[in-house]
Design brief:
This protein is an alpha/beta fold. The protein contains 14 helices and 18 strands. Strand 9, helix 10 and strand 10 form a beta-alpha-beta unit. Helix 3 crosses helix 4. About 3% of the residues have low confidence. The chain binds N-carbamoyl-L-aspartate (NCD). N-carbamoyl-L-aspartate binds next to helix 2 and helix 6.
Length: 474
């Protein structure tokens, strides 16, 4: 059984078959809650929450208690040696030597990856900054599947803070895996990050139609629409896009509306000043009175603030409290599978569609541009080397292995051609033909000419080429 001893850091760690296996076990367990006691007797789970949490922590802990296991828990970073400057790696090694399973929530993006890399036991990411929250996604999908029986072909609308909402980021990839269409309704200024959208279309196929290319009636018919992702498994073609509005309104409608709160704790100073929430309507009965919302499941990972009206609590379409309640059986199933205590059959053809990208790892050179990435934090740089996947050659794009932010470096050089011949130690613009020519294992990238000059590289005649438009940080 592939799930035993696995880590769950991002939703990519699970195949569709594995997710289905978790759902079927959760289903079985939710009907026989009291019979599960004792299943995890003798097992200990560490529950480490370095950011506020109600549902995730308490449902993980309830799940372990219901399975008859024990927990050790920390819910305050100030109460651990991290406050004394200890690294995440050291903490992970030590706690991994005490327990059988670690659940971690941390504000730094990629922190759960580091814990998984340095501990000897399975690790579950319970939210790492604005990056991912895969177990919330399991609860979300389980909720949708219970009602709609399938996820394939559904129209799922995502609403609110799509920039910092980690639940949304995991959900986007999971919906794509299961073949759903996604409608993006971000609060102005809080759109889905480019690196998430790039990964979505590069790795899961399908088409992304942005607002400026959307038909007028489509983009403003219900509520302002920023983009649509059309799954490749769906019968509609881009040519049918003008009719999507018609389809959405009269035939299938919106199957689920996933509302999220503004993640103010991650806002930049400029974003705080803008009071973003005021510019987005509250989801209430009035908004949902159109035909398209007749069968819509109203979802929210919770906590809600002002974005979802309390009047919807009694509405038969609301599902957010069920979503939260599913947290216990879903996490019971996950814990018992990762600990290897339960096994469920997986379809033979079920595999993880792993894309092998060349890795970029050097002692010098750019660090991750994301200020919340674990790899650039002072306590972690003593042992973590920046590491990127080269996900595209044209334009040359690197993706941080930890937080998955992408960027397009401005200059390239080769470690092969300058060997021994200092005169050829040249750097070139990343938009020149050299960027495609240099083999991945010889590739050196720089974000500025100063960085290249400081390493002893001289400008080539191709160093001054500029890319069209703005230089991109995704
Ligand atoms: C979410 C989270 O922490 O990312 N909550 C949860 O786990 N159910 C959503 C949020 O905080 O807005």
């Amino acid at each position: 059984m592939r799930l035993a001893n696995k880590n769950l850091v991002t939703i990519d760690d699970l195949s569709n078959g594995e997710m289905e296996a978790i759902f079927s076990l959760a289903n079985e367990m939710s009907g026989t809650m009291n019979e599960q006691f004792g299943l995890c007797r003798g097992k200990v789970m560490a529950s480490l929450f370095f950011e506020p949490s109600t549902r995730t922590r308490l449902s993980f802990e309830t799940a372990m208690h219901r399975l008859g296991g024990s927990i050790i828990t920390v819910s305050d970073v100030g109460a651990t040696s991290l406050a004394k400057g200890e690294s995440i790696a050291d903490m992970a090694r030590v706690i991994g030597s005490y327990v059988d399973l670690i659940v971690i929530r941390h504000p730094w993006e990629g922190a759960a990856r580091v814990v998984a890399d340095y501990s000897s036991v399975p690790v579950i990411n319970a939210g790492d900054g604005g990056h991912q929250h895969p177990t919330q996604t399991l609860c979300d999908l389980y909720t949708i599947q219970k009602d709609k029986k399938t996820i394939k072909g559904l129209n799922i609308a995502l609403w609110g803070d799509l920039k910092y909402g980690r639940t949304v980021h995991s959900l986007i990839f999971a919906l794509a895996k299961f073949g759903a269409n996604i409608l993006f309704y971000p609060t102005p200024g809080l759109k889905v990050p480019e690196h998430v959208l790039k990964k979505l279309t590069m790795e899961y196929g399908g088409e992304l139609e942005r607002r400026d290319t959307l038909n007028r009636t489509v983009k403003d018919s219900l509520i302002p629409l920023d983009a649509i992702y059309l799954t490749p498994s769906s019968p509609h073609q881009l040519a049918m896009m003008p009719n999507l509005n018609l389809q959405v309104e009269t035939r299938t409608g919106i199957d689920a509306l996933y509302v999220t709160r503004p993640q103010k704790e991650r806002f930049t100073a400029a974003e705080k000043g803008q009071e973003l929430k005021k510019s987005h309507p509250v989801v209430d009965k009035k908004m949902l009175r159109g035909k398209a919302f007749r069968q819509t499941l109203v979802m929210h990972p919770l906590p809600r603030v002002d974005e979802l009206a309390y009047e919807l609590d009694a509405d038969p379409r609301s599902r957010y409290f069920q979503q939260a309640a599913q947290g216990v059986p879903v996490r019971m199933a996950l814990i018992s599978l990762l600990l290897g205590i339960k096994e469920v059959p997986l379809p033979a053809e079920d595999t993880l569609p792993e894309i092998e990208y060349p890795l970029y790892r050097r002692e010098f050179g750019p660090s991750c541009p994301n200020p919340r990435c674990v790899s650039i934090q002072e306590t972690e740089t003593k042992y973590l080397q920046p590491e990127f996947k080269v996900v595209n050659r044209e334009p040359l794009t690197l993706r941080c292995t930890y937080c998955e932010h992408g960027f397009e470096p401005r200059y390239v050089a080769s470690s092969d051609w300058h060997k021994g011949t200092i005169a050829t130690k040249k750097y070139h613009s990343a938009v020149s033909h050299w960027a495609r020519k240099i083999r991945p294992e010889y590739l050196i990238v720089f974000n500025s000419e100063e960085e290249a000059l400081a390493r002893g590289f001289k400008p080539s005649r191709f160093s001054g080429m500029r890319r069209q438009g703005k230089s991109k940080k995704q």
